[in-house]
Amino acid sequence: MPTIPQNHKTIQTLPTRIIPHHIFWLILLTVHIILALFFLLDRSPGTDAAFSGFPLDDAWIHLVYAQNLAHSGLPYYNQGIAEAGFTSPLWMIFGALAHLVFFTTGISPVVIMKVLGILLAWLTSVAIFEICFYFARRTLPALLGGLYTATLPLFAFSQVSGMEVCLAAGLSGWAIIQLLKNRSLASGILLGLGAITRPENTILTLLVVILALLSKRNKSDPPKSDSIMKLLLPTIILLSFWSSTCLLITGHPLPNTYYAKFTDSYFWGGFGRIMSEVIFKMPAMFLFSGALLYFLGVGQMLKIQKGKMALLIIIYPWLFLCGIAFSRNMPPQSGLYYYWLRYLVPAIPFIFIPLALGFELLWNSAKPLTHPKSKTNILRAPKLLAILLILLSWIRLPSQLQFRSNQYAWNCQNINEVQVELGRWVNEHTPPDAVIAVNDSGALRYFGKRKTIDLIGLNNQNILFNRELAVDIYRSPSTLTKFLKNQNAHYLIIFPTWFAPLVQSEEFKKYFKMITYRKSENYTICAAPQDLMVVYYGEY
Questions:
Q1: Among candidate residues 334, 512, 308, 338, the one with its CA nearest the CA of residue 412
Q2: Nearest Cα to 188, choosing from 237, 120, 235, 243?
Q3: For residue 510, how many C-alpha atoms fall within 13 Å in the half-sphere facing its CB?
Q4: Which of 77, 254, 345, 520 would bridge 83 by S-S if both were Cys, CB 3.0 to 4.6 A apart?
């Protein structure tokens, strides 16, 4: 990649380090481990669900594919039937490796994935630390940026969630670090891996390529086309491989998750909720303290680095959040639930870079306030303001960490006491050749170990791409009965509220009898009525 124009002599090379950075890396690791234990040992539900479970069924979906990948080398949902119901191919591969470790050591894949999540979250905090240090040339603001990331309650939740979001954030952070070091190929590889971790990460790839196109080329630089290809080619290759796999499996170029979950939502409403319910509800933004530091830091970044790298780092998280607002439904109160917050996690750490640099600007301000009639300093206002803003930005952290920790434990409990328990029930009470139909498809498949028909279509292309059938299944007892009979599926496990008119009809009651159910008394995953799941047996 062409050298980024440098207009400040002190940052033409990476600054000299006085204290070894590994010390600060260890501080950040310690914080991550402490918070991980705080979450994992939470006993709010009176069980060990926080340690043994996952807070969303989506984590179990990835483990279904990962388990089959480890067994057979192919991304099966049901053994021998390839599907494209996984959002993150790279996370699925990590899950497969976790199962290989499990096969040889007996260590639970749940534990392995949580440990991996903690390490990836730590590497993200280290990346934020290093980027802050590059711009500030001091360890105090760099450590501050890393600590904001490590202690963010949403990030502490994410690192033990079994989800791929910390991997996505870390790959983006280290791709930017490689850019700062003018390592185009290394950056390109990380960008490509990020794109097959979360599809929204392609936003960073596009921004980096635009930056390369706009950068001026020095005589000593390699040709611009070479640098651009190094940055872009890994993403093209990896996305092409993923898209080709989807085409071979489903006949469509994108994974099932896109077609099942994409929502052409009202952008301004969604983005407004992201800002009001998530960004400005972060502890760092208490009483707009972090916002003031952020805008000071933006000005500082643009001042000390007039090239385009600063602009890239400033713009990236907001474009990412805009992409989420365009493509995902962010309903009212979405800021309360990880069910929606997970989509935002890969971008939020990058907001802390300007924020940390804003502190640096105030702390090192050379002009304290003076009384207009006196030549002596009466108040070192910038430093005092910096201290005040930092204190305000941390004051709500304990209460929010406690809230998210309790929510995490209860989310895990909700999944364990409904989907996981029913999955185990299926494994213990149905014949090995039984076929079950479900509308929540992760833990029921993973623990049930039976051929499973996903009625949403996320893991069933025949339903997903036949919208008429998909709609009729939810409305018409005769259509549902005929479909299940053709699939030889006698067990129906659903949230009855999703099928309310259907399950209340006399025709449904004629064919289906309730066998058992599981219910969450304190449901915390989302505002949707998913606290009750019922097992029906169909006779036809």
A1: 338
A2: 235
A3: 8
A4: 77
